[in-house]
């Protein structure tokens, strides 16, 4: 019999109950007990949803109050002493690591002042995990009342036998880093970690767990040979524990494991291997051939990273093939990854256009999908005939909808010519025209764009949304906000002004609402980090721009000052990455459509007298495929092309800026250069000066705007500090050379 499994469920709850409770706890409005109770209720409800959906294997320990990697830091007592020394209650120590803690002394406790641990992106998703930060001679031990055991028993008491999920020992270390001042290579700590790991597995077995899911997602990355060797050490030790630990499923996702297939023999003692067959269906044959005798394949065929309904026909083709090779008892139908990256349920969405609502599946619906597919294989397609028919007609409706196919957009894409990727003149000529036109000083100053979204702004937007105030009233409110921002910048003596973006609800949604091809949810929240959630708009069809999107505000702003005004747009890659993209056409096609829409906007801004235009691409880097090589080159090729298509429609005199919130360009600097932006605004307030060395090494030929004021921190940097940062930057010969130009 083919069974089904869900690798993990979103934590927030249908109404973001977890966000609300954690933030209330941080604000001192609810007690730790109340917060813990909320967590317990959410877990119970999530297990029930999956059970009712018919999912066979349901995860536990997928829940977290902040981040699951952070859970493991505490679980293995790998808490740096700067947190531990305060002897905080476990939950407070946990949040202190996640988000830092600053607390004045009281009668009973000393003052606490400790920054957060580093947080970084989880593979190529928009979820962020807390990085294990390890010491030389790091020791590990098991926390009291280990969370995975606790939550397993909690589910069991509710009548659900779950499969606890753990971050694997090799991935845990590989994803970590040495603490400041330490020089340890994390993977060398494996021998120290394994006894704790095995102790935990033993406790899970004693609690009644028959299986555990051990996530080793790093198997999809390019790995150094010592990390590959670590799998052998780790899983030999784990196998030696024999019957005193549960059966193990090793899970990989977000890529294929073909390039690491030689690691599989090291995993021969585990009972199942999970692979992502949504991203990489072509790995199926290689993985099947590499399985140990009797080993089970967990086939990830329901996408954990998007909101699209699974194509049952395609999923069944893959699963049938696996069953044919291995037999029904050795195949499990699973989600491709945890459903953490999908919203809670489609059932809450009441405002989606009727036609498109049937195209989606959120987490709760995806749990049903794995069950249906497994049933179709086990009992035959007739046993789920209605579901399969409904699915096929939904696929058909989407493929043939006028919403997904706009012939005018396709026509325009077919007419893109090579010259549309090129500015009229090379940079040296352009910059001369721009300098003559803009008349800027030697070190022009500017900001990245948005001024605070005040309560007043939000209230006005809400009133406008509800029809309490008219469009004209809202527009004049926005104009007043713009004027305040402009006067403020004039008073400060800034050189290139911005309008402050008061009209934008979000840097992607705002554009999505003005383009065809997008739809929006009311509750489609996805955890980004800690209590922070994002609600990505959904690209459902071909994208076009019926009318200008930002010209009104930028033109108004330019009209009330004699200083140059900078127009502000979100770039094609960022619009795409921070949305749920379509899965029926390649992302490069969607990026090109966005680029053409933005190209029109750029040209319209120029025509309106806006001669500095910033096209933000903060998401360019996160789209970078996880492994170097062909796939990464292909991505950079279409990403760069889409940026150029969006920005090259202007005259020499118009200065194109781009902005990135980071300056880690080492792996793909050639692409940054290839953007051909006149000015590149990058992060330079926190970043290591050595990151900027790449500009020197690669002889970057254009202008740079080093961001010297950290906008994420409430701290006001002293002038001297800013000056020192700029002087550091001037050590780069290219920067010096730029100064010598007229
Ligand atoms: C995340 S990058 C943000 C850029 C945008 N122009 C802003 O200032 O909000
Ligand atoms: Zn930014």
Automatic annotation (TrEMBL):
Its EC number is 2.1.1.14. CDD domains: CIMS_C_terminal_like, CIMS_N_terminal_like. Zn(2+) binds at residues 659, 661, 670, 683. Its cofactor is Zn(2+). The active site is at 712 (proton donor). Pathway: Amino-acid biosynthesis; L-methionine biosynthesis via de novo pathway; L-methionine from L-homocysteine (MetE route): step 1/1. Belongs to the vitamin-B12 independent methionine synthase family. This is 5-methyltetrahydropteroyltriglutamate--homocysteine S-methyltransferase. It comes from Choiromyces venosus 120613-1.
């Amino acid at each position: 019999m083919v069974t089904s499994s869900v690798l993990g469920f979103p934590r927030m709850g249908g109404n973001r109950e977890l966000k609300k409770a954690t933030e209330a706890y941080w604000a001192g409005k609810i007690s730790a007990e109340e917060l813990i109770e909320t967590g317990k209720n959410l877990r119970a409800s999530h297990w029930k949803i999956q059970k009712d959906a018919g999912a066979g294997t349901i995860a536990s320990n997928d829940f977290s109050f902040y981040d699951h990697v952070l859970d493991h830091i505490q679980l293995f007592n790998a808490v740096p002493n700067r947190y531990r020394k305060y002897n905080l209650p476990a939950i407070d120590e946990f949040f202190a690591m996640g988000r830092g803690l600053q607390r004045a002394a009281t009668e009973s406790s000393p003052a606490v002042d400790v920054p957060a641990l580093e947080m970084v992106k989880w593979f190529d998703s928009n979820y962020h995990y807390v990085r294990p930060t390890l010491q030389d001679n790091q020791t590990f031990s098991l926390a009291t009342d280990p969370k995975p055991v606790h939550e397993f028993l909690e589910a069991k008491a509710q009548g659900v036998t779950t499969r606890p999920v753990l971050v694997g020992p090799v991935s845990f270390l590989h994803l970590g880093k040495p603490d400041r001042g330490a020089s340890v290579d994390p993977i060398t700590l494996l021998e120290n970690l394994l006894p704790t790991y095995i102790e935990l597995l033993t406790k899970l077995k004693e609690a009644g767990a028959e299986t555990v899911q051990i996530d080793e997602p790093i198997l999809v990355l390019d790995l150094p040979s010592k990390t590959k060797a670590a799998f052998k050490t780790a899983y030999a030790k784990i196998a030696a524990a024999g019957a005193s630990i549960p059966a193990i499923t090793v899970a990989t996702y977000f890529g294929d494991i073909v390039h690491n297939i030689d690691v599989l023999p090291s995993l021969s003692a585990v009972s199942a291997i999970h692979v992502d067959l949504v991203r990489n269906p072509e790995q199926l044959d290689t993985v099947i051939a590499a399985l140990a005798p009797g080993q089970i394949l967990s086939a990830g065929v329901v996408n954990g990273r998007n909101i699209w309904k699974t194509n049952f026909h395609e999923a069944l083709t893959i699963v049938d093939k696996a069953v044919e090779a291995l037999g029904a008892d050795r195949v499990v139908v699973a989600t491709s990854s945890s459903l953490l990256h999908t919203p809670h349920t489609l059932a809450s969405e009441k405002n989606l256009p009727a036609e498109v609502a049937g195209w989606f599946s959120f987490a709760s619906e995806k749990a049903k999908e794995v069950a249906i597919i497994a049933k179709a294989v086990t009992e035959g397609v007739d046993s789920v005939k209605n579901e399969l028919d409904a699915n096929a007609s939904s696929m058909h409706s989407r493929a043939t909808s006028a919403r997904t196919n706009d012939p005018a957009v396709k026509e325009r894409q077919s007419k893109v010519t090579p010259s549309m990727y090129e500015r009229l003149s090379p940079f040296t000529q352009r910059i001369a025209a721009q300098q003559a036109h803009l008349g800027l000083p030697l070190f022009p100053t500017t900001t990245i764009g948005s001024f605070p979204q005040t309560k007043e702004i939000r209230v006005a937007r809400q009133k406008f949304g509800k029809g309490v105030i008219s469009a004209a009233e809202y527009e004049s409110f926005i104009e007043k906000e713009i004027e305040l921002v402009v006067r403020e910048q004039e008073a400060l003596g800034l050189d290139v002004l911005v309008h402050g973006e008061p009209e934008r609800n979000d840097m992607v949604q705002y554009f999505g609402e003005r383009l065809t091809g997008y739809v929006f949810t009311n509750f489609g929240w996805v955890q980004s980090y800690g209590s922070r959630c994002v609600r990505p708009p959904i690209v459902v069809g071909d994208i076009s721009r019926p009318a200008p999107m930002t010209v009104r505000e930028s033109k108004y702003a330019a009209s009330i000052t004699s200083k140059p005004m900078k127009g502000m747009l979100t770039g094609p890659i960022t619009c795409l990455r921070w949305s749920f993209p379509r899965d029926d056409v390649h992302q490069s096609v969607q990026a090109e459509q966005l680029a053409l829409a933005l190209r029109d906007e750029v040209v319209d801004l120029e025509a309106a007298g806006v001669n500095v235009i910033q096209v933000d691409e903060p998401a360019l880097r996160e789209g970078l495929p996880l492994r170097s090589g062909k796939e990464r080159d292909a991505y950079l090729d279409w990403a760069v092309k889409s940026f150029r298509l969006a920005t090259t429609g202007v005259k020499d005199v118009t200065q194109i800026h781009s902005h990135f919130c980071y300056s880690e360009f080492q792996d793909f600097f050639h692409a940054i250069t290839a953007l051909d932006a006149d000015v590149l605004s990058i992060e330079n307030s926190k970043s290591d000066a050595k990151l900027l060395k790449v500009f020197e090494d690669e002889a970057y030929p254009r202008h740079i705007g080093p961001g010297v004021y950290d906008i994420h921190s409430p701290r006001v940097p002293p002038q001297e500090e800013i000056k020192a940062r700029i002087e550091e930057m001037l050590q780069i010969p290219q920067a010096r050379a730029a100064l010598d130009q007229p």
